[in-house]
Amino acid sequence: MRVSYSELKQEFKRVLLARGVVEETAEACAEMFADTTQAGAYSHGVNRFPRFIQQLEKGDIDPTAKATKVLSLGAIEQWDAHQAIGNLTAKEMMDRAMALADQHGIGVVALKNANHWMRGGGYGWQAAEKGYIGVCWTNSIAVMPPWGAKECRIGTNPLIIAIPSNPITMVDMSCSMYSYGMLEVNRLAGRQTFVDAGFDDDGNLTKDPATIERNKRLLPMGYWKGSGLSIVLDMIATLLSNGLSVAEVTEEKDDEYCVSQVFIAIEIDRLIDGKTKDEKLEKIMDYVKTAERADPNVEVRLPGHEFTTILADNRENGIPVDDSVWAKLKSL
Ligand SMILES: NC(=O)C1=CN([C@@H]2O[C@H](COP(=O)(O)OP(=O)(O)OC[C@H]3O[C@@H](n4cnc5c(N)ncnc54)[C@H](O)[C@@H]3O)[C@@H](O)[C@H]2O)C=CC1
Ligand SMILES: O=C(O)C(=O)C(=O)[C@H](O)[C@@H](O)CO
Q: Where, in this chain's numbering, is NAD(+) bound (predicted)?
């Protein structure tokens, strides 16, 4: 089914208000969930909302909390989220990184005690829309085995790098080949994943999303490379924020909260003039897109460019929502 933006946002807001979230916060949070869904990130928009509400009801998320600054070192700042609503603090921290970049050329904000930010790409996009290079990542609870193991000891720790090209080019990727959110999207659509997504109980590679959602033997993106990337991203986020690592979140908390995040904005306008910047980006994009196609019917695309098309379609025709997800939302 397709749902209008306003109907979707209204549903999110209704549920939040019913849980005692104050009007202003409910409005801002509902808007971010609706924007994320409309942008095409269904996995971390409407699909993930019931899980977010579960954590709100449990008290892992404190809707009254506000992030506070802990330490300032010029271009680098440490903040404490105090378990506030994850998408709202993440937006605020990327705004802060951009303000620091205006002063110093680069702004780095590290946040501890944060909650799940949903679609990490939203914050990279936020920076790129304003002309900055946006980089951010988060750690998580252990939900993936490191390369060579079958027990979960590392996070999916998505890394986002967004470039202010036209259209915006953005890598927004979990360190696993598939995020749990995208496994769910594939399962709900009744399909196997396009490439291997994890291992079955016998240790064979599998494309079956339900098997991996159950046994959590998620395949790291790029095999040992995604495993290594996840580990170093966790180390940096932990050190910069002085917050909890994947190991600590997993051992000390009963669920995924109090994670550590990093937000970086780079101001490029003083490094390269606007015309040269645009020409160079155009050249890079054209060079990639005009590579001889493997399949003549499938164009070569740049990461993130799909969202510009999806957003336009969803604005015109309404937002696709899985029937079972909509029924769940209405029941909250
Ligand atoms: N703890 C957390 O906060 C987590 C959040 N997430 C979020 O879940 C969302 C989904 O993450 P993933 O499943 O890893 O994303 P994905 O696998 O759908 O996409 C990863 C990247 O590949 C690009 N891409 C996909 N297909 C492509 C193609 N054919 N050609 C060129 N580029 C292509 C996408 O634009 C994107 O930049 C993200 O917003 C992520 O931030 C994911 C894991 C954990
Ligand atoms: O993988 C995901 O999707 C995701 O968003 C996550 O936060 C974690 O990896 C996992 O905690 C999902 O249960």
A: 168-174, 224-225, 304-306
